[in-house]
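User: Can you write out an input/output pair for a complex, sequences first and structure second?

Assistant: Here is one pair. Inputs:
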Amino acid sequence: MAEKIKSTSVELPIGGETKEIIDERIKKQAPVPKELEKQILKVDHLKMYFPVTKGLLARQVAAVKAVDDVSFSIKRGETLGIVGESGSGKSTVGNCIVRNYNITDGQIFYNNQDLSKLGKGEMRKLRKEVQMITQDPYASLDPRMTISDIILEGPRIHKTVRGKGEERELVGQMLELVGLNRSFKDRHPHEFSGGQRQRISIARGLALNPAFIVCDEVVSALDVSIQAQIVGLLMHIQEELDITYIFIGHDLSVVRHISHNVAVMYLGKIMELTSSDELYKTPLHPYTQALISAAPIPNPTVDRGRERILLKGEIPSPINPPQGCNFCTRCKYADEQCMQEEPEFLDVGGGHFVACHKVPGTNMKGGH
Amino acid sequence: MGKYVTKRILLLVPTLLIVCIIVFALMRMIPGSAVDMIVYRLGQAGQQVSAADVEAKLGMDKPAIWQFFTWFIGIFRGDFGTSLFQNESVLSMIGRQLMATLELVILTLILTNVISIPLGLYCAARQDSISDYTIRSISIVLMALPVFWIATLVLIYPALWWQYAPPATYVSFFTDPIQNLKMFLVPSLLGALSQTGNQLRTVRTVTLETLRQDYIRTAWSKGIGEGRIMLRYAFRNAMIPVITVIGGSIPGLIGGSVILENMFNIPGIGAQLVNSLDNRDYPVVQGCVLIFAIIVMVVNLIVDISYKWIDPRVELE
Amino acid sequence: MKDLFKKKPMGALGLILLALFVLVAIFADVLAPYPMVNGNMTVDVIHKLEPGSAEHLLGTDSLGRDVLSYLIYGARTSVILGICCTILSTLISIVIGVTSASIGGKFDLILQRFVDGWQCIPGMLILIILMNIMGNGLVQLILAMAIPAGIGGSRMIRSSAISVKDAGYVKMSGILAGNVWWKMLKHIIPNIMPVILMGLAGSLGGVIMMEASMNFLGYGVDPGTPSWGYMITNQGRSNMYVAPWLALYPGILISIMVFASAMFGDAVRDLMDPRLKGGIGSYNSKKIAKIAARMGKKQTV
């Protein structure tokens, strides 16, 4: 059984001043109606289809079903992890929440406001609260700007700081918060390593004092040791500033470390959704089981001893997904029903959601 | 291939439309009404007409958009309108002068390429040698010399020293080639001079890039001689950008032709244009500009098609 | 900047020459032996069409104007035109190219068709027509030259803007709620600066040549303003039997100025474009000798 990795917390110097500012920020974050104080985000039947066009006049001939009916909710201050292979649609979900795309169908409720229906002006205001950090530390920072300018871009757009003095203070605080030296503010991105750049990206994301951050594969491009640092930093910030995360990644071990709940996606649909502990203790969906068995365990004896689940077959095309369960082409338990009928996404007990015909409320446990 | 060609030709139509709109709009912006000019001129010739008469006759009392569309549609029927001052259709006026301009442009092109391509290839083959530097320096100097200045000097000094003057009357090439060439050689040469400078450098640059390719190195290592490498391998691939440059130089050549025609008394379209412009002879000016634009578009089309012909790898939408 | 002097001596030479022209233009009133009075050149009615003498170093023209002074003031015209035109046309290119790329969609499509159509019409013709519309004069000439040049140059700017506009940091800017204009000003334009500068440096030579051509044709500045191109037609050609040298001097100056701009423009382009390595533009004669000696006659690829 996999051991829980001990928290690698990096001791971050949060000085006295900064602590006060932090408390103030928490107070300044958008107030939430009492009843739904807990639930900050609710996604309802989200669908995102990208049209495939052909010919001069760009007729739509097919659609890439990147996200196909995804629903979940997140409580304030918690982290939802989304895992999946490339093409599973996990990044698209993140982009939809931040409204990088206009969603095809479904609703996204942030503090009970439907994001998908908001106009440009209102969405603009909301951007102060919902931010995103992306994967590539090299492409996401403008090489011609100084660190200071990069961090200040958001506040300048929204005019949340006034005057050079306030600007400098904010930059200094943000840099401290992510564990970088204040003197870095006048340097340029190319002078930093990948890990440092991700910290700068995080600082930029925090500059607007958001309540919700989508972390899209933020550690996937970094060395393993740096990954640990950044994940630790994010968790620390979550504690201090009471921020809610969606953490998207493909490495299950990393994702589950930072997440309270984990959703496993495959070809645009969620296969399993439950708390991260529960996911590791009792993975119900065959895909989850395969993922877990593929993740290496630090202890070599245990690692060598366990049974590996190998997936056969190829991943189907998202333009033409299988008629039944998306996973049926590779699942070793698949039968007629799986090929024909799409499984429903059901709660099989205690908030553990699965979409699989082979787990209808019965306790069919696979794996270890 | 055929599908591509058809598609490209069809795409010319919207571009043609836009060109016509631009030309038409520009013409209408010129101050000084043609009508007044016509009334004045006709009056001088002994005919008294009123402005209203002229307008009605020319269809100029109708709204501008109507005028535009009649003209535009007429183009496809081959009717470019009638000159306001001479009783001749624009098309026939242009037809008369077109030969001269075409000859000038073609001769210039031939001369330019005959000089620049071999020399450019040579410079690429002997990169950084003394001849390379010399030829390149000369070509830059050539680029800097204003065509009209050299033309002026060519007109002044030979006249001064040898009582030489270029022939003043136009003779078609088919009538008397020698006489014809006597008239066209000097201006073509002048036009070619400045073009050569630019083109030589391009040929050289492009050939250099091509020569650095791996397949050239392979050919070398196989023992293939330098000449063959240049001609069979490098030349073909280097020519694609060169063709683009040649195609792109056409608008410049046409502009240059205006000056050269003016100076050497060549009855070409450029000269026609300037004359008609002074008279505010809208239809003729429109026709001239349009013809030039059409020539440019056709040349671009040929360039694009030859891309595909020369390099089958090129993917064209 | 010091790269320029070290690696591209010809380019540096070009820059120095240009700077000289600019200085002459600025201090024309001081340098000219017969400065302008009230915007008019001083006329010496006694000495007309005379070759170089003690009083008039380069002689006089048909109106009795001192040739040297005329040439000096002509430099001023050329410099003003060159600088204004280049800057204005670059601005126009940026506005058209960057907005077309950033806004995209139908706007881009239609604008590009317009640019396409515009480029089919030979530049000289457009210039002649535009000058006819606006009449002669310095300001008109600047506008007439800048607008077509700007439209033509927008292609290059647009393609570099397109390559930049999908970069990660531009998307992030959108997530931070930056709108199209913010992205354009803060991200796209700063990142295509090298291309812009290349265009600036390269177009100077062409502008000067065009200006001279237009003045030559009689469509340029009004006759009162001294201009080299105008001198070639007006003085040079008209008086070719009596004073043929009048056509010579202005042409030489034009050539030098175009040459200097071309050298400088080339050098800037080479320095900014990392692909073009290997001997282009370096005309250092000592280097030539060394290289020639080292490699002999045949070049190995």
